[in-house]
Design brief:
27% helix; 19-stranded parallel beta sheet; alpha/beta; 42 strands; 555 residues; 15-stranded parallel beta sheet; single chain
Length: 555
C-alpha cells in the first residue's frame, strides 16, 4: 500500500469502526497512526468495533494500551516480535489470541467481558496479566509461557489451563476463581504461587511443579490438590471444607497425551513434599501418599483430626552410631519423627551446619534463633495430637512412634515435667522404650532372671536341705505319746555353690517368680529377699514386653 493509499484509508476511519488487517505487517509507527484515527473525541482513547488481526505481524512495540474493542477482537496466529502491550485494554465482546506468538506481553488491568481464547499461544519471555478481569470463559489451553507469568490479583469467572506449560514462575497470588472447577493439568518448571488466592467453587487442581505456595490460600468448598514433584507450602491456608492433597503417581494427560515433564524430572523425584501446615485448620485436611519429612506441624489447629492416609513418609532418626558429647556412643531407636523434633535436637546439640545425609538431626531454616526453634513442650503437643489422629483412624502401629516421640519430649522437658516424673520417664525409657520396645524389655527380663539365678545360687539356696527331727517322751505307765518336729534353719552356702543341681533349683525359683508364684523351695534369709525382689521386678518387665508387642501389631 502506497503512502497515499494509506492516508486515504486512514481518513475513512473513526472511533468504533470495524477494521480488517488480517495478515498485515505492522510497524510501531503504522499501528500508532491506525489507532490515532480510532480515538474517541471525548476520552481520547481508541475504540474499535470488530477487529480482525489474524496472522498479522507486529514489528516493534505493539501498543494497544487503553484500547476498547466493542466487537469481536481476533488475533489468531498474530506474531508480536517485540512487546505486545494491552494494558488496561477492554474487550467487550469475544476475543481470541489462539496460536499467537508473543515475545513479551502485558494485559495488566485488562477487562475481558466475553469469552477469550489463548489456546496454543506462545509467550517467549515474561507475560503480565495482573489485576485483569476475565468475566467470561478464559481458555489458556496448551499455552507455552516462558519466564515469569503473573496473574496476580486477577479475577477468573471460569478458567481452563489444561495442557499449559509455564516457564520459571506461574503467579496466581490473590487471584479469585469464582466458578472454575478444574485448574490444570499444567506443568511449571519452578514455582507456582497461589498465596491469597480464593476458590469460590469446588475445585480440582492438577499441577506438576517444583514448588507450590498456598500460604493464605482460601478454599470455600471442597478441593483436591493432585500434585507431582512439588514442595507444597500450606501455611495459614483457609479450609472451609474437606481439602485433599494427593500424590499423582503417573504424568498428567491432556487428550490422552502425557504432559512433558523433562523440566522437572532431571532434578526432582515425582513425590509430593508438604513443607508446612502451620496455622491450618487440619480437621478438613487429608494428606495421601505425601512426604512429610520436612513438614512443620506446630501451630496447626485441630491437628488431632487430620487425616494422614496411604504411604506417607516422616523424618527418620539419624542412622548409625553417634557420639553424644563426643564421648558416649549412641544408636537411636528407629522410629518416625517430625521435623520440629529434628530442629530442637539440632539446636540443643549445637549443630552449626546442615548434614548432607541422614547421619545427624536436620537443622531448621531458622537455626540459631531460639525464638523460632520449638521447645520440647511444643513438640510434645504436636506428637500427642498426631497420635490421637492415628488412633482414631484405628492405626495403632502408626500411633506408636508418635507416642514414643511424645514421651521423649516430656522426658527432656525441664519446664513442664517435674523432676520426679522425669526420673520415672527415664526409667520407663531405659527399661522398655516407653512400653514400645519389646526387645529392650525382654533383654532386661533375661538380665534380671540371670541375675536372680546367680544370686540364688550364690546366696539364696541353703547349703543343704534342712532336716526335720522328731523328739518326744513315752510315759512310764504307758498312754499317749507326743512328738515335737523341728527343722533346721537353712544354712548359708559355704562351698560348691555353682553346681548343676543348685542351678536347676535357682532357675525353678526364678521362673515361678516371673508369674507371681512361689516355688516352695527352702531359701536362706537372703534368698527370701532375692525372691521377693524377683517377684516384683520380673513380672513388670514381662508385662512391658507383652505390651510392646501388642502395641506394634494391634490394628
Amino acid at each position: 500500500m502506497t503512502s497515499a493509499h494509506r492516508t486515504a484509508y486512514l481518513g475513512t476511519l473513526s472511533s468504533g469502526a470495524d477494521i480488517d488487517h488480517r495478515g498485515t505487517p505492522f510497524t510501531h509507527r503504522l499501528l500508532t497512526e491506525l489507532l490515532n484515527e480510532l480515538r474517541d473525541q471525548t476520552t481520547s482513547l481508541p475504540v474499535i468495533g470488530r477487529a480482525l488481526f489474524d496472522g498479522a505481524r507486529f514489528d516493534g512495540e505493539a501498543d494497544f494500551a487503553d484500547v476498547t474493542f466493542t466487537g469481536p477482537a481476533e488475533f489468531d496466529g498474530a506474531v508480536f516480535t517485540d512487546y505486545g502491550r494491552f494494558k488496561a485494554a477492554r474487550f467487550e465482546s469475544t476475543s481470541s489470541f489462539a496460536g499467537a506468538q508473543f515475545s513479551e506481553a502485558s494485559f495488566e488491568n485488562a477487562v475481558f467481558v466475553g469469552a477469550t481464547r489463548f489456546m496454543h499461544a506462545k509467550f517467549q519471555y515474561d507475560s503480565r496479566f495482573m489485576r485483569a478481569q476475565f468475566l467470561g470463559l478464559a481458555i489458556f489451553v496448551m499455552v507455552r509461557f516462558g519466564g515469569v507469568t503473573s496473574f496476580e490479583g486477577s479475577v477468573f469467572t471460569e478458567a481452563r489451563f489444561s495442557g499449559t506449560r509455564f516457564g520459571n514462575i506461574a503467579d496466581f497470588s490473590n487471584v479469585t476463581f469464582t466458578r472454575t472447577s478444574v485448574l490444570g493439568p499444567f506443568v511449571c518448571a519452578n514455582q507456582v504461587h497461589l498465596e491469597g488466592a480464593v476458590f469460590e467453587a469446588p475445585i480440582t487442581l492438577e499441577i506438576a511443579a517444583a514448588t507450590v505456595y498456598c500460604a493464605g490460600t482460601r478454599w470455600e468448598y471442597r478441593a483436591e490438590l493432585r500434585l507431582r514433584y512439588a514442595d507444597l507450602d500450606l501455611r495459614y491456608a483457609v479450609l472451609a471444607a474437606p481439602t485433599a492433597v494427593t500424590f499423582h503417581a503417573v504424568p498428567f494427560k491432556y487428550l490422552s497425551t502425557p504432559l512433558p515433564e523433562e523440566v522437572l524430572s532431571g532434578s526432582h523425584d515425582p513425590s509430593v513434599r508438604v513443607t508446612s501446615v502451620q496455622g491450618v485448620d487440619a480437621s478438613f485436611l487429608v494428606l495421601t501418599d505425601t512426604d512429610l519429612t520436612h513438614c512443620l506441624f506446630a501451630g496447626a489447629f485441630h491437628l488431632d483430626q487430620i487425616h494422614i492416609e496411604g504411604r506417607n513418609t516422616f523424618a527418620p532418626v539419624p542412622d548409625g552410631i553417634q557420639l553424644r558429647g563426643h564421648i558416649w556412643p549412641v544408636k537411636w531407636s528407629k522410629r518416625r519423627t517430625i521435623a520440629e523434633e529434628h530442629h530442637w535436637r539440632a539446636h540443643a546439640a549445637g549443630l552449626s551446619t546442615q548434614p548432607s545425609g541422614t547421619s545427624r538431626w536436620q537443622i531448621s531454616p531458622h537455626h540459631g534463633d531460639p525464638a523460632r526453634t520449638p521447645d520440647p513442650e511444643d513438640v510434645s503437643a504436636v506428637y500427642r495430637q498426631l497420635r490421637k489422629a492415628f488412633e482414631d483412624a484405628k492405626n495403632e502401629p502408626g500411633a506408636a512412634d508418635f507416642y514414643y516421640g511424645e514421651m521423649e519430649m516430656r522426658r527432656h522437658s525441664r519446664h513442664s515435667t517435674p523432676r520426679g516424673e522425669r526420673g520415672l520417664l527415664h526409667a520407663y525409657w531405659f527399661l522398655s522404650g516407653y512400653g514400645l520396645r519389646a526387645s529392650r524389655a525382654a533383654g532386661w527380663l533375661l538380665v534380671a532372671m540371670a541375675t536372680t539365678v546367680l544370686l540364688l545360687m550364690g546366696l539364696g539356696l541353703p547349703q543343704n536341705a534342712p532336716k526335720q527331727e522328731a523328739s518326744g517322751t513315752v510315759p512310764a505307765d504307758g498312754g499317749q505319746v507326743s512328738f515335737t518336729i523341728d527343722s533346721d534353719e537353712p544354712q548359708n552356702p559355704t562351698h560348691d555353690r555353682f553346681t548343676g543341681k543348685r542351678f536347676e533349683k535357682a532357675l525353678n525359683v526364678t521362673l515361678n517368680s516371673v508369674i507371681f508364684r512361689s516355688s516352695g523351695q527352702d531359701l536362706t534369709t537372703a534368698g527370701t529377699y532375692i525372691e521377693m525382689g524377683s517377684r516384683l521386678m520380673e513380672p513388670v518387665l514381662l508385662a512391658l514386653a507383652v505390651l510392646a508387642i501388642r502395641g506394634r501389631i494391634k490394628r
